[in-house]
Amino acid sequence: MAPILLPKRKFRRYIGHIMTSMRKLSCNPFTSVMKTSGWGYRNSVILFLLITLTVEAIGQSTSSENPNRNDHIFPPSKEASAFINFDRRGFIINGRKTFLVSAGIEYARVPRALWKDRLERLKRGGYNAVEIYTFWNFHEAEEGKFNFSGDHDLDAFLNLVKSLDMFAIVRVGPYYCGEWNFGGFPIWLKFKPGLVARKDNVPFLEATDRFFEKLIPIVSKNQIHKGGPVIMVQLENEHPESWGTKVPNPYFSHLIKKANELGLEVPYFFSGLHPGNDPAGNLKNLDDPKRPNPWFSTEFWGVWFFNYGPQPQDSTIYDRRTWKIIAGGGNGYNVYMAHGGSNFGYNNDRDMAASYDYGAGVGQAGDLRPIFFAYKRAAWFARSFQEVLANSTDGGKISHWMIRDTAIKVNARVSPAGTITFLDNPGKIAKKAVIQPPKGLSGALSANVKIAAGEIMPVIQNFKIAPAISLDWAPTRIYTILPQGKTSTVVVYGDLNSLVQLYFSSDSSFRVLKGNANFVNKSTKLVFSSVVKGPPAEYIFSAGVNQVRILVVQSALAAKTWIEQIGQDNYLITGPSYIKETSLKNGKIMVSAERQWNDKNPMPTRVYTEKTSFPLAASTVPSSAATLQLHPDKWQIKPAVEAALPELDDSAWTHSTNPLQMGADGDLTANAWYRSKVQVDTSGTYIMRFKNVKERATIFVNGVKQDAELTDKSFTINLNAGKVNTVSIFTAHNGRNKQLFFLGGLDTIDMKGIAGPVTLERDSSNVKIISNWKLKGGPGDPFAPDAWTSLPPGDFAGPAFFKSTFTLPRQDKSKTIIWRVNVTTMGHGSVWVNGHNLGRYPEKIKVSGLYIPESWLKEGENTLVIYDEDGTNPGKVAIEAEKEASRDNFLLAEY
């Protein structure tokens, strides 16, 4: 990778930004790493600096700094332009200005049976789009064998996105990164002669073209103008030679030509747009007159891949960073990751194991964290006011009159649809502020508000919330404005006992229908004020044929406010921790809801329709009893060391003069065996040296595991003269490097196992080359029924399979219990439940076990198989409930 040269001042700014982020995140992504994987703070800082400096410097550099990079988007074709288009201010989807709130999720990291659940959680969190990778090695793990069925069915996933009325941004590669095994490259690319990755190289482009010929038609038929959800496509990812629309060499020209030939017509771009953990940075104005498209971040990192679960500061830090995008004029962002998921099988890179939780708003097991609700609040606001935000320009000092306290920073977005002024308290303590009313606004009084530390508070002016009804000024926090037929429901929120104020005007006379004492009605002018109390308070007025409902709620209840749709009708529901489904049964509303076990603040449920509101009561009550630990029955063992036995027939193994790196035989796992025959003239101690030996290796001589440790690429072993000694070496790795920014040949990078010459020496004058090697990848068959025996005490000398069963009690539909296989007492390896590979262990992040997707479990007996590379006894393995992620399910119905 070429070095990135930054001016001294800019470099200092980057260092300051990163160190500030590190201090804020000191309890966040790296604390878990230091505790669980032996990383020190220094290494964590270095890694974070390298990744963030490099990605942000490349992704955000302007064309004047680097002629090969910009943040532009190629326009759509004529056929697609009526459905998806853009101007400098915003995206235009189906003819309407649209603010994009996209959720990063990978279908490859979620079982197909759970796709709908995860997507619905994201949709209810305010996201109107998803962004996905189409990992090459997930679809073509073996050359020429394409898999687009089952869990790999991209077409089915995109159809599901469409059915939920969401959009999709598809990142088609051929390179991905994503903390995925080998960055998404198939392993077989390493063994293609002359292949140079991500360059104008015939072998690489031929392989890419064959993959694209299977992949792109699926994406193309799901484009928005063809009835699908796809609105944008990203070619390549984080390529150091081109971001945006720059085409610096034939490689990028080829990708464009091939994608267009295969039907790509929606807007597209290279590599990514504005990635970072704080994409807006310290810029108050993200407008750029040279940019033909709106500002958009394809990777707003929230939180970081070394994290598991919520941390106290997450929701505050990332809430502010989201509002900075909105306030600065960004027209959207993709939260990477909104749901992380799992690295099933051998799909993890070397930094990860099975869990890819990411500290995301929707956890690995579908649980909702505080950051989910922070993102949700910002999302529904941005979408409620997208007519302004997706068509606005920087207001300069147009609203500076609003606040006299210079500690509060003021900026505004101005559009024909209205103005939004953002009041920013960048300090570390809350500030009391007095918001001045606009001049000429009849009856307007200044508003006393408390702006929390780091909060950015929006104030609305001159926004039409319904035909002929204008919201002239709102020095109040607005959660959403929901159209419900001829009723517009405005949800406002604040702390207990705080004051809310709203000022309206209309061409027609106002009529107060509910809460008369809270209004000052001056015919065509209407002033509303109220104090936030415990239960939600409802106020209603009309003008002409249109009606407005004002719903005043506490901030905590705003987080538990949900927008549901049945047919064409919108419903607002307050109270549940989460709503899974809303339906009509015999004309009555039925709500399937859930409450996480760690939610200690249940609230009453109420439904708001176009014409009325009413409470719901629980018609089912979750049971109080729950089993929290399942113990596997009697364990069995099947040694996995047959490959070390001298008498083994290895004639079908891959043969070579010198050892070949792992994967050369087509195996896709993280394990491989090497064998050779060695004869010596003198019995004694010898040193076997390797040119390349990576990560973990264990040596066996004549079928017996040696106590020798791998030191400086060598083993010290004892050999007998007068016989043929069988030397077998078991190798394993923790995942392949994701190859961030790498361009070049893949054959010699990130080699695993053993590769190159091997020598044997008794002393410096007696050195011989060991040749005639055999290679066989894989741990063996975990499901073969033979050779299982009862488990004896103690550990086993070498890799072994262990099998047991556990009994899942009759499933109580009132609970979703999240189960994990706790393997913290084991060595290194993989876990299968009912034939499904949960992924690799030990975990690299602070989580106690491997997540078992609910859809892979069954009532009664379940089969558990563990392959432990170290032969560690599984006697302490348990199946444990993760209480923080588990939840109760219940039905709510009208009284």
UniProtKB/TrEMBL annotation:
Domain Beta-galactosidase galactose-binding: 799-862
An MF annotation (GO) of this entry: hydrolase activity, hydrolyzing O-glycosyl compounds
Pfam families, alphabetized: BetaGal_gal-bd, Glyco_hydro_35
Gene Ontology BP terms: carbohydrate metabolic process
InterPro entries: BetaGal_gal-bd (IPR048913), Galactose-bd-like_sf (IPR008979), GH (IPR017853), Gly_Hdrlase_35_cat (IPR031330), Glycoside_Hdrlase_35 (IPR001944)
Domain Glycoside hydrolase 35 catalytic: 91-377
Keyword terms of this UniProt record: Glycosidase, Hydrolase
PANTHER family: BETA-GALACTOSIDASE RELATED (PTHR23421)
Family the entry assigns: Belongs to the glycosyl hydrolase 35 family.
Descriptive protein name: Beta-galactosidase
Naturally occurring in which organism (per UniProt): Daejeonella lutea
Upper lineage: Bacteria, Pseudomonadati, Bacteroidota, Sphingobacteriia, Sphingobacteriales
